[in-house]
Amino acid sequence: MTASSETDETVRCWLVERDYDDKGLVTLAYATSDGDRVYRRELAAGAATRSRVTAAKDVDPAQLEPVEDADTRDRYATEVDRTADQYEPDEPI
User: Residue ranges under compositional bias (Basic and acidic residues) (predicted)?
Assistant: First the structure.
């Protein structure tokens, strides 16, 4: 967790999932290291290829949602480990 002040606190989250739907949207999921919480960002497919998708993001805790399913939490935690081992946080992925 990175904090410069109590009001400016962020949580490091790692890219764990990238889903494409039939409407041309891409959903990026960034999870906390334990897989317990997730931040989702939806982009148009064209914007996702033009924007800089990085391996990690520092997210405001208020933007994180709990991950209810235990299997999904485990999968996210495993994917966080894999992503963090292979990429620097600001590296495009």
Answer: 70-85
